[in-house]
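User: Quick sanity check before I run a bigger batch. Here is a single chain. Can you write out its predicted 3D structure?
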Amino acid sequence: MDASATEAFMRRAIRLSRRGFPMPNPHVGCVLVQGEEVVGEGFHDHAGGPHAEVVALAKAGSRARGATAYVTLEPCNHRGRTGPCTSALIDAGVGRVVVASRDPNPAASGGVEALAEAGIPTQVGLCEDEARLANEAWLTAMERGRPFVVLKAAITLDGFLARHDGTSRWITGERARREAHRLRAEMGAVLVGAGTVLQDDPLLTARIPGVENQPVRVALDFESRLTGKEKMFRSEGGPALLVRPPHGGEFECPLAEGGFDLGALWDLLWRRGIRGILVEGGAHTLRSFAASGLADRLELFVAPVLFGSGLPWIGDRGRPPFASDLGLTLDYSRRLGPDLHLSFRFSHASREHAPVIVRPKK
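Assistant: Done. Predicted structure follows.
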């Protein structure tokens, strides 16, 4: 089979891998091929569900024997909530395995070696850059040992999150709100400050089709203003964590210079199994995280609305920041109904990190 055909099968696996909401597990796609015919394919839909290789093998049945498996991430070689995919591939009698990228998780790695020991030829690195991009959040988290952090804000054309009284409901349209719910499910966790909880009393769930596991919901409550009776703690959905200073609650975060130590917070969340997190603000929380040097992306939704005055989403009052002020590089922009979605990447290497704290709001 020529190189263009093998790349086409791997790109098909990569497209499959983008589906589902598997956090805190990785996005993985698998395509099984006999000759030039696809006999089975699958993706990892949600944590706790069957892995991509197992789904593809089940669809292929007996036709998996002797087939070539195209897998976007090295097959796992350990037993978690499901068995090792290496064993499934070996037991099915596949003839060859092509892997786009190695698994950086030491608990699950070694799949290529296990397959080779079983006499199954392997190839590593086909379409690796494309596969990594499709699995960016999880791979980055595993390589850095902290959650992948995405900031999200919905703002007016003149840069305001809300009016002075805090009201901001439905600045953006339905498509933008649906994308925000998708981001919650994609990251697997969502974080807000106590002010947002008190103002909006949000559920913080991902209310879109296809979500099997609701995101973990995290509220930062420096001054112990929340009662634990707010909707995010009472409603059905993912676990809800109330973060308070030491001696202030069950989930305690160390302090630094009078605020939460964000580095310590990420360590706490990492130990709770959180690999990605969507920070939804408000303005004070967004400002702190943007300055911390520990944010990876910014997803900004701009509505064709003018407030004239109000609560700026970030930066000095009355002056929205430039992307260069925050060390941001625009990846892409697109229309979502009447709104504009701007997707930025934080350029960590090009800026000096600010103190890693969230100060209490004054």
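The first strand starts at residue 29 and ends at 34.

User: Great, the batch can go ahead then.
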